[in-house]
Write a structure and sequence with these properties.
The structure holds 2 protein chains of 2 kinds.
Chain A: E1 22-29, E2 36-43, H1 47-59, E3 64-67, E4 83-86, E5 93-97, E6 102-106, H2 111-118, E7 123-125, H3 136-142, H4 149-152, H5 155-158, E8 159-165, E9 171-175, H6 180-186, E10 195-205, E11 210-218, H7 221-231, E12 237-242, E13 254-261, H8 270-273, E14 284-285, E15 288-289, H9 293-297, H10 303-322, E16 326-329, H11 330-334, E17 352-360, H12 361-378, E18 384-389, E19 403-411, H13 417-433, E20 437-438, H14 448-454, H15 457-470, H16 479-485
Parallel strand pairs in A: 2-4, 3-4
Antiparallel strand pairs in A: 1-2, 5-6, 6-10, 7-10, 8-9, 8-10, 11-13, 11-16, 12-13, 12-18, 14-15, 17-19, 17-20, 18-19
Helix pairs in contact in A: 12-13
Chain B: E1 16-17, E2 20-21, E3 26-30, H1 35-46, E4 50-55, H2 58-75, E5 78-83, H3 92-103, E6 108-111, H4 126-154, E7 158-162, H5 175-195, E8 201-207, H6 227-239, E9 244-247, H7 251-260, H8 263-266
Parallel strand pairs in B: 3-4, 3-6, 4-5, 6-7, 7-8, 8-9
Antiparallel strand pairs in B: 1-2
Classes of the chains: A alpha+beta, B alpha/beta.
Amino acid sequence: MPPAALQGNHLAPPPPLRARPARSYERVEGWGMAVGGDSTVLRPTSVDEVRACFDLARRERASLGLRGTGCSYGDASCNERGHVLDLTRMNRLIAFDAATGVAEVEGGFTIEQLWKHALPLGYWPKVVSGTMFPTLAGAAAMNIHGKNNYAVGTIGDAIREFDLVAPGGELFTCSRTQNADLFHAAIGGFGMLGVITRVVIGTKRVHSGDLEVRAFANRNLREMMQYFEAHKATSDYLVGWIDCFGGGEELGRGLVHDARYLDEGEDDHPERTLALAHQQLPASILGFPKSEVWKILRYFSNDVGIRAINTAKYWSGRLESMGEPHRQSHAAFAFLLDYVPGWKLAYGPGGLIQYQSFLPNATAHDAYVELMRWNQRRGFVPYLGVFKRHRPDPFWLTHAVDGWSFAMDFKVVPARRAELWKHCAELTEIVLGAGGKFYFAKDLVIAPRDVQRMFPAERLDAFVALKRRLDPDGLLQTDLWRRVFQPWC
Amino acid sequence: MSHAPVPAAVPSGPVRISGVPLDERTAIVVGASSGMGAALVKQLAREGYRVAALARRKAQLDALAAACAPLCAASGGAVLPVVHDAAHLPAVPTLFERVVRELGGLDLFVYAAGVMPKIGKEQYDTAIDREILAVNLDGAIAWGNECANYMRTRRRGTIVGISSIAGDRGRKGNPVYCTSKAALNTYLEALRNRLSESGVHVCTIKPGYVDTAMTQGMDKLFWLISPEEAARQILAAARNRVNTRYVPLRWAAVGTVLKLVPSFLFRRASI
């Protein structure tokens, strides 16, 4: 997309006064709080300052890990042995074309900023995660997906163009036609090739600030998958919640939420529903101010408490599923994870890990049933289970498959940490045996050999060769890189 | 079976001895060369802390480190002397980073640097006043901000600011000393409120008369305590997560009364 075609609110970033990024020393941890370390954090505000960060890291003989808002659950944005480049201060809107919905933003611009700018103009981001806080550079680097992955692909599919500053300081503008290899490698390249400083991304025209949502309660996993398959041609969003404590006939019981965009004319007052005021997440939950809710949730953060909450949720979902479809705002439907601020703190000092595996259609059902049984047998039952449908995409290190994903949140109890990791390694054997994959934005458990089984060797070799070309001295590193890539490449 | 190595856990719940977990015994004391700062360093060294002692005067620092050596040998602690002028703000961020790396963490921060030059009855000297603000306030803010950001991201830690009972009222004796301490009180309170959701505690200490260089030559001293006793009480207050503590506690009564005295009377008093 040539910049000339973009019109509208053109807010050019001011020229840099000095190429010296802000610097601080702090704890940098994965979102799940199960991993982290103290690092020097550099916060550039311009491309020149990004280059200055590379120079500074080289001068201080430190590696540099890239980070946005730190929403990756595992170690993708941690760099315990080096410095961290935090892109959140490069968060300006460069342009938004109100005629086409194409946004041009800096890398640290967040999904929250994007939807809040776009929705009043009648656009919604094509792909959003379950939280609105990720930056677009981070979302691109991890190639995130949403509850509509099966229909519209990952965020990479919505990105038209981006600028990437390589560790040598060169700036590459990448798109499907220009530097196409780099375009397909850097999206999903988990920040190992360079800093994404500018993103051009398309959004979707919407005719209402509401979605039409219906619920379906499923007694087991098979029923959930059948519902997805029957509705994926017509529904715009499909997401399944699974009560991982369900057993026997009810193994995989849960709820599907199925949403569709409203057509033009279905909403009598689109100007009202598209306004930000309509999109507020609820300020209180069951009468408690939402900022206090995690403190109450702490007391339920054990097998007994979660079993009780899940049972209540499942049965209230059964009631909900008998009712008529209802309308819900985009933000309330999309950003479930943002309802309770700080909810992750309810997991306690050990934090949590999310084990999300992606399986092809043919093997998914049986493998997931095996995972759930294995969890229950070993006494590691996930406190949250989320099920989604996916489709393949052209990005080199993509996690997406023509199949399914099952995300399981495990509480990390410090005394059982090593045991949990061993358990996950056993799950990983099942997943890889069934032709599955993992997702770097979530992972904290897979081993170097696992990643070699996930991707064809020539794909991995091409990625490593590209990294060597752009980053010959190996400046860009994270704990994730050292854990799963460095040992073999 | 391919089995990824388990990454190191976030430290939690280790062995506790005398109330403070062993891996939470790291501290920085700014203004450590004499008085309460030096006494705090000694007390922490005795308790097995790794303490960075920061001060301007190298000779005193070296003497302090030497005095702490046997304490450290007995407790397993360590004292890291660092020459630093608290009024030199640009040095703070990188020095903070260097010291925390060296200590391997930071659980307790104490800002004990303070000056109270003698101000003549009819003296209005902006240069001296700015010097007071630089040490008593600017340095506290520069260090406090670094600590706040670090401890916030770790969701734990304690920041202690040594203020003064003098910050409660504007006294005729040394207007800007009172100002610096009043501002410090407000800064510490704001920091405490801001960090409360992050599990970080901020403790304001208002000492009365302590037998230090600052009170040398003053007359009419009463309830005088030793710096060692002050240090003991300061650490106790910090560990009990007290918001504001007069040291010794009986000064709370004086402070409360002084705050109530109306201005037209307060200005007649010779304090």
